[in-house]
Amino acid sequence: MSSKDAKIYVCNHAGCNNKYNRPYRLEQHLLSHLNIKPFQCSWDNCNKVYSNKSHLNRHIASAHEKEKKNIIYSCPECFKTYSNRQNLKKHIRQKHVVNLPFVCDYCKAQCRKKHQLSAHMHMHNGVKAFSCEICSKEFVTLYEKKRHMRCHKTYTCDVCSFTFNQWSRYQKHRKSEHCAKKYICDECGRAYTQRIHIIRHLKIHSNSENIRRTFACPYSNCFRRYSRNSNLTQHILVKHKKIKHICNICQAEYSSQAKLNEHLIVHENGVVPKRKVKSLATGRKQRKDKDTLKVTTALKLAGLTETDLNECKILKDRQ
Fold first, then answer.
1. CA–CA separation, 204 and 200 (whole Å)
2. How many CB atoms lie within 10 A of CB 117?
3. pLDDT exceeding 90 applies to what percent of the chain?
4. Minimum mean pLDDT among 88-102, 123-137, 291-305: which range?
5. Diameter of the chain measured on Cα atoms
6. What was the pLDDT predicted at 138?
7. Side-chain half-sphere CA neighbours of 95 within 13 A
8. What does the DSSP assignment read for 67-91?
């Protein structure tokens, strides 16, 4: 018996010395002393009650569902039959289980395998019987040693002989270096295995105007353009179709449902929610692009590049 299976939870009831290796099992046992049986059989004309749900399930299986399920648990040694699995296990344990070959000299605990006995002896002598042959780290159980040995396992690429200590890194290397690359850049010849990667790469070679798709308003005499179709849809609903979100309390009109929801909070709480604005004094970080020209989406849609902006700045400085 290993240290984690030691029965350390003892019943303190007078005349009862039952021990358990789990606290919830002791709690279930204490219900029998208090005569508390919360699990009642739901079958008709049956008033059986139990303190443990597993006992109730065993009663239902043996008393009510035996004919329905037609389950017979038979002993493989003496062929004696039982109505449930628990009774069969109890019979085998009491009548047919032989003494296990590895016995502890201190507490007479029996183990089926030698490494189980070695792990059990740690609770008596404090010796960790298993050690790593590579880094000499010691472990209590053989399972802990095997789990540790995974960190020493390596994976060698059969194409370029590179070695990796993680399976995920090995797979990433194979996909990036040795898998077929079918997306090739016409500008620099660089190849990619996924379409999304080459789309991201193409932004390096050309202006965003050539790659980024814009959405123009279809209404006459309206020259608005948007970088997202959702923004164009919102523009058409508000400006051209005159669709508004109206408050049913004060008839205030808003362009989106989100703004209407913020407005309704005022009616519910009676207080206008204040937006928390951070400043440099209250924790806002310094802008990384401070004192540099920003190419906004509007300027990109207008066809202006960073070079054009620099020329405009030079002319302005000269004036």
1. 8
2. 20
3. 9
4. 291-305
5. 109
6. 93
7. 12
8. HHHT--EE-TTT--EESSHHHHHHH
208 pLDDT above the threshold of 60 = no
> CA dist 51 to 13, 63, 88, 142, 279, Å?
17, 17, 22, 39, 63
Look up residue 156 and give its two tokens.
């060698």
* DSSP-derived 3-state class of residue 40: strand
**CA separation for the pair 204, 199 (Å, rounded):** 10
Number of other residues whose CB lies within 10 A of the CB of residue 292: 8
Which residue, 62, 109, 69, 110, is CA-closest to 88?
Answer: 62
> What phi, psi does 109 have (nearest 5°)?
-70, 140
Which tokens sit at 244?
């508004």
pLDDT band for position 152 (50/70/90)? confident
As beta bridge partners, residue 183 has 192
Amino acid at 79: F
Please name the residues in contact with 198: beta carbons below 8 A apart, sequence gap of 6 or more.
Answer: 183, 184, 185, 192
Q: Average pLDDT in the 68-74 region? A: 65
